[in-house]
Design brief:
It contains 14 helices and six strands. By secondary structure, the chain is α/β, with parallel strands linked by helices. The chain folds into two domains: about 190 residues, Rossmann fold, CATH 3.40.50; about 80 residues, no CATH class. β3, α4 and β4 form a beta-alpha-beta unit. α6 crosses α8, α8 runs parallel beside α14 and α11 packs across α12. The longest helix has 18 residues. The mean pLDDT is about 90.
Length: about 280
Amino acid sequence: MRKQNKLKRLEIFAKRYIKAKKMALLPEKIEGRKSGPKVLLNSIPKAGTNLLDGYLQKLPPLRPSGTRTIIEWKDIPDKTVNKILSIKKGQYYIAHIPAHEKLLSALRSSDIKVLLIVRDPRAVVVSNFKYVLDIDVTHRTHQYIKSLSNDRERLKACIVGKKSQNKDQKDILTPIDEIFKLFSGWTTLDNCLIIKFEDLVGERGGGNCNKQFETLKKIVDFLEINMSNNEINSIISKMENSSSPTLRSGKIDGWKKYFDANMTKIIENQLQDSAKVFGY
């Protein structure tokens, strides 16, 4: 993938918006405006947002909003809560939002369904530093990651975090255990389905085709979309045969070449119990 400067990122967002508008004109998407589910696609950053987005786009009654990813880290303003509550039938928003109680409380009394995709924390930290270093040069942590002498130091920084010298500013890098703690509250929300990247990625990503089918069927059932097993398998086939860079590079065990015994010990000590709530 090419490096993304400000111009390139504007181009990406413009293409996403245009694609969403065109998709909204498809007959099945128009029908979804009457009875389709309202969905918030939420994720821990670098946990498989694009993968799940690709599946949702192929579900007949669902259409993406085409708006930029919603990110509210340490707090969430009322305007963002109201934006999420305004999701229309047959539409989904994409977000990286921790479990802010204000939002959870609002969602408990709504008809919005939340899909939260998570991933092995070792894969998350590797994906994070590679993305910030090699792709998104506009990212606020790019210069810091680039300044480190080697990938080992970059990986360690993404595990243990980096505090800002200004206590009034947010961390340069949030420790991986804090990230998982921030998102753990989503497990308390009844209308939230937790999805593991490893269960959804399929054989091309080193996963299992049976688990992939079971996971997509669970998503379809959770969203109350009426689809046959053959239709679900057809969507999986389209995803497996696509040219998505996410499917090419999103390997379950890709993190292993960056983790020796010492680095594994560092992340185990750092995580402690924070990732266990998600089964890691």
